[in-house]
Specification:
The protein is α+β, with helices and mostly antiparallel strands. Helices cover 36% and strands 23% of the residues. α13 crosses α15.
């Protein structure tokens, strides 16, 4: 590797491509939001796609390339002991087209910077992940990120119009929607791009029934793994688009340099229904009831997350605690929260009457459940506090440290049908209790998604086996 790396560095000098071998930068680049740590040999800061093409053409075995933007991925996908491209220094261009409700984004741009520009036009990228204040758009595309608004507007894959990628031969190709004739013309190209279209054409032909079966209704909405060949052909429009293959591919199919994304108009009227749940057996009915009324978001965090948040967001947790204490005093004189988890259901529309009706109907239909407290949140300050706790759930648990006891985020984005939560959550809790492992969870429960964060004693001799047991 040393000889190959030396030749690459020589090229970088010759082409005046920015890079570093500074130990502090390499160490910083060795971690993302996962439990892994792998230090790169070299970090490169390309200025444009032309420099990336030059780098790709120069890479020789045993070197490999990985790409980094925000570094918030939970899988270690950007980590490498070889060459790392960091796009966030130079490739950050953003252009918003308010007329077509779309944006063109270079892959070093952060979501927060995109949002800053789109909100000027009352628009936003609706996959809206929990890490939106720190994540890169490229990472969202790389792992098909979804968020609190995805139950209505879809995951990232539903909001990507086209992508521009550097392929393994260094060529730069735009993958966008094509008519049938345009698709077949691509298969005639005597290039790497042509090879790809021919391969896709053959796969779609040879495995037509299997691919079509993937379009059938599934018990869960979220799907963030695998190459989504089922999304290439749009039967209704009779068009083809290979960009969905890149969404969720973690840069294994090419290095994305730019993407065109669909934007959603922000609806002005909102209503939050907030509830505390004691009996997990009630979850399926609660979720089904909420989902029947077209919510924009359905989120959750458990009591352990709430207790942990008290040390980080005291003002907000106190406000929520006081709200429930006061509500209990008015109803049954109980002054302790005593819930297993909390659920947030938010309704949004341009029509205030619609959201008012949706919220009232949900409250009414859930009124028959014993020991379930359901509230329409009127106070905007309380509203903001509830969302503050939810949106910071991961951060407060990820940073859990108490002596040798540390949070290890190793049960990530578990997806199960919402009608099975009354089985899944208690059984998972039982497994954790069996191994004497403290944990907390939160997530996009309307999508059937939970993020469970267990805490381990890292000084225990069998800690690795404990983690593996999960």
């Amino acid at each position: 590797m040393k000889e190959s790396l030396a030749r690459l560095v020589e090229l970088l000098h010759k082409e005046d491509i920015e890079y570093t071998t500074d130990e502090s930068i390499l160490t910083e680049s060795s971690r993302d939001a996962s439990i892994f740590s792998i230090q790169p040999s070299l970090v490169i800061y390309p200025r444009n796609s032309g420099e990336i093409s030059t780098i790709v053409r120069a890479i020789e075995s045993p070197l490999s390339i990985s790409v980094r933007a925000g570094g918030t991925c939970m899988t270690g996908a950007s980590l490498t002991n070889s060459v790392l491209l960091n796009l966030t220094k130079h490739m950050t261009y953003i252009e918003v087209d308010a007329v077509c409700a779309c944006a063109t984004v270079e892959m070093g741009a952060f979501y927060k910077d995109l949002e800053h520009k789109t909100l000027e036009h009352n628009l936003y990228l609706a996959s809206y992940p929990s890490s939106k204040d720190v994540c890169g758009v490229a990472g969202m595309i790389g792992n098909n990120a979804s968020g609190e608004k995805s139950i209505r507007y879809g995951a990232t894959i539903d909001n990507v119009i086209s992508v521009t990628a550097i392929l393994h031969d260094g060529s730069e190709v735009v993958f966008e929607e094509l008519t049938e004739d345009e698709f077949h013309k691509k298969t005639k190209l005597d290039t790497c791009e042509g090879d790809i279209y021919r391969d896709i054409q053959k796969l779609l032909h040879d495995h037509q029934k299997a691919v079509e079966s993937l379009h059938k209704d599934h018990p869960v909405k979220k799907c963030a793994s695998g190459y989504r060949i089922d999304r290439v052909y749009n039967k209704k429009a009779n068009t083809y688009n290979l960009s969905p293959l890149f969404v969720g591919s973690q840069s294994t199919l090419g290095i994305l340099t730019e993407a065109k994304v669909k934007l959603t108009r922000k609806q002005d009227n909102r209503k939050l229904v907030f509830m505390g749940i004691k009996n997990l057996s009630d979850l399926p009915f609660i979720l089904k009831t909420i989902m029947n009324h077209d919510p924009e978001s359905v989120e959750t965090f458990d009591i352990h997350t709430f207790e942990r948040a008290k040390g980080f967001h005291t003002e907000h947790t106190n406000r929520v605690q006081d709200f429930f204490d006061n509500a209990y005093q008015k109803t049954d004189s109980i002054t302790k929260i005593g819930f297993n988890l909390f659920v947030l259901a938010e309704f949004a529309s341009d029509n205030i009457d619609i959201v008012e009706e949706q919220a009232k109907d949900v409250v009414k239909e859930l009124a028959s459940i014993d020991e379930l407290k359901v509230f329409e949140i009127q106070d905007t300050v309380l509203y903001d506090s509830i969302w503050k706790i939810r949106r910071n759930s991961f951060a407060v648990m990820r940073d859990y440290k108490d002596g040798t006891r540390h949070a290890v985020p190793c049960i990530e984005d578990v997806i199960v049908p919402i009608h099975t939560f009354d089985v899944f959550v208690p059984e998972l809790t039982s497994i954790l209790k069996k191994h004497n492992i403290f944990s907390a969870f939160h997530g996009h429960i309307g999508d059937g998604s939970l993020r469970i964060i267990p805490v381990f004693d890292l000084s225990a001799p069998d800690v690795v086996n404990q983690i593996d047991s999960l």
